[in-house]
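@channel sequence for tomorrow's demo:
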Amino acid sequence: MLARTLASLSLLAAAQPALANIDIQFDFSYDTSNFFSSNPDSVAALNAAASIFETRFADNLTAITSSGPNHFSTVFFNPSTPGADVTLSNQSVATDVIRIYAGAANLGGSTLGIGGPGGYNCSGFSSFCNTDTQRGQGETQNLYDSNGALLSRNAVDVAPWGGSISFDNASTNWYFGLTTAGLNSSEYDFYSVAVHELAHVLGFGTSDSFEARTFGSDFIGASTGSVALSADLGHWADGTLSTVNGVSQETAMSPAIYNGQRKYFTALDFAAMQDIGWQVAAVPEADTWAMLLAGLGLVGFAARRRTA
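structure tokens (generated this afternoon):
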């Protein structure tokens, strides 16, 4: 079977109120191909994917406010031209908000999507920069030498201002539904890929605290135990299994997905997010999970795999 990938740089809870704390906000101003405006159902699916994290992450992220001598600039890859970076000066981000720039491009090969956290430039009082780069969380940076080699595993937390995600708009036949009712073997599930790429923005495989828990080819965390990683060290090894409310499923953060398949964020995926520093709240009540699992079934015919 042919595979397509879910890359890093690495439900339907859409109708339910947020149960935790963070607020993921999407900015489509760099969607120059009009992928989202041309596929309006994609916005609902993207927000449904975001709600998986909004309803489980209870962290309190302090605001970032550029003013006076204090300047915070955001740096992120252009989602419509992933090889080019965008720098925005004097940016502010509200309390608990994570801003993500979304768009689409011809990603080539077998790649369905790419996503990753943004960088930053900060100037002004040291207290301003320390507060804004950590957003009230614990240490988010490891210690490296001048050649980029890891010296000390200091990072215990993640605190992104946001980042960017891009979806393939060239060779992918997307399915944008909120349930799997119309998902067929010729389509790739947009919701599943969005969940995967959002997790990369939030630090899976991309944060210093993830690297701090990577030893050789394994991720070792208090919640996950020792779990094998893929060759790129940014995903679980292909075929890694976990559960969604007791139902067995390949993890969302494995590197590939079949056409005609929906993947949900599993217990192991959430455990890793907790190990890298997110405060993961308890699972939703049973009736909420009934909503989530209503569309869990996989389409039962031959499928090809692609990566994201």
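heads up for whoever presents: The helical segments are 35-38, 41-54, 126-134, 190-201, 208-211, 267-275, 286-293.
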